């Protein structure tokens, strides 16, 4: 998930570092259409979260889909070029993963959905960062093969990329309930996100679709707890 020669956890790569170098050299010879994998997570009411993974290009794309619609709308992407991954608040990701688990007990939380989707969430001053770190760590650990002693991602690796406390990221909400962020002044980490203020006459980030999906997820949890 985060295995890069200069990324979080690089000091634990071991022999994998050489393999990653070979993989990067071969990426230009592969067709992404042949290597991409699509994963769908249902949160309720027909609303879906879609993840497209292209392992050969180390590229991940997050999208949402409304009920009875084949169309998807992109929230963000994470790759080795012009990444804009930070589409979700931690509480939103946690809500999504809990709803997924409520509908499919095999996709328990924290588990595979959180491990796959956590790269699209960040944490800020008002988040339960210790709780988020523990959940992500448990999600990664749940997928680790028995007796595996090589590199494996950890919650700490994720947090090194996702921690924007003290980085002057300001969240705002409008009367319609749309929530977006902007980064002010000097900062050490760059908050790259498509989740910006709705533009007049256009909505570059699908605020309405995300709100509808989160509402459906909340309804799923409420119904399952009844």
Structural descriptors:
226 residues, four-stranded antiparallel sheet, alpha+beta, 7 helices, two-stranded parallel ribbon, 20% strand, globular, 8 strands
Notes on the structure:
There is one protein chain. With 226 residues, the protein is α+β, with helices and mostly antiparallel strands. The protein contains seven helices and eight strands, in the order ααβββββααβααββα. Strands 1-2-3-4 form a four-stranded antiparallel β-sheet. It has a two-stranded parallel sheet with strand order 5-6. The protein has a two-stranded antiparallel ribbon with strand order 7-8. Strand 3 (59-65) and strand 4 (72-78) form a beta hairpin. The longest helix has 19 residues, at 207-225. The protein is globular, with a radius of gyration of 18 Å.
Annotate the secondary structure layout.
Elements: H1 16-26, H2 32-35, E1 36-44, E2 47-54, E3 59-65, E4 72-78, E5 88-89, H3 90-103, H4 112-117, E6 121-122, H5 129-142, H6 155-162, E7 169-173, E8 179-183, H7 207-225
Parallel strand pairs: 5-6
Antiparallel strand pairs: 1-2, 2-3, 3-4, 7-8
Summary of the model, kept short:
This protein is of the alpha+beta class and 226 residues long.
Shape: globular
What percentage of amino acids are in beta strands? 15-25%
Q: For the record, give the distance between the C-alpha atoms at the N and C termini, rounded to a whole number.
A: 36 Å
Count up the helices. Answer: 7
Order of helices and strands: HHEEEEEHHEHHEEH
What structural class do the secondary elements suggest? alpha+beta
Helix content: 25-40%
State Rg. 18 Å
What is the number of E strands?
A: 8
Compute the average pLDDT: 87
Main sheet: strands, sense, barrel: 4 strands, antiparallel
Unreliable stretches, pLDDT < 50, 5 or more residues? Answer: none
Strand order of the largest sheet: 1-2-3-4
């Amino acid at each position: 998930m985060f295995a890069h020669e200069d990324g979080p956890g690089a000091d634990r790569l071991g022999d994998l570092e050489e393999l990653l170098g070979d993989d990067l050299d071969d990426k230009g010879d592969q067709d992404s259409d042949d290597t991409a994998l699509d994963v769908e997570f249902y949160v309720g009411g027909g609303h879906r979260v879609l993840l497209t993974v292209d392992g050969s290009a180390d590229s991940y794309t997050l999208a949402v889909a409304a009920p009875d619609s084949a169309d998807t709308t992109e929230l963000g992407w994470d790759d080795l070029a012009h990444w804009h991954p930070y589409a979700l608040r931690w509480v939103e990701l946690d809500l999504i993963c809990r709803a997924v688990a409520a509908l499919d007990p095999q996709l328990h939380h924290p588990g595979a959905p959180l491990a796959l989707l956590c790269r699209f969430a960040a944490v800020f001053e008002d988040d339960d960062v210790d709780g988020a770190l523990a959940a992500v760590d448990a999600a990664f650990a749940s997928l680790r093969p028995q007796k595996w002693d090589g590199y494996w991602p950890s919650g700490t690796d994720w947090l090194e990329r996702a921690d924007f406390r003290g980085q002057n990221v300001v969240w705002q909400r409008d009367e319609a309930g749309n929530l977006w962020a902007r980064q002010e002044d000097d900062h050490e980490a760059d908050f790259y996100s498509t989740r910006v203020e709705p533009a007049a006459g256009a909505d570059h980030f699908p605020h309405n679709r995300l709100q509808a999906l989160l509402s459906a997820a909340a309804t799923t949890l409420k119904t399952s707890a009844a």
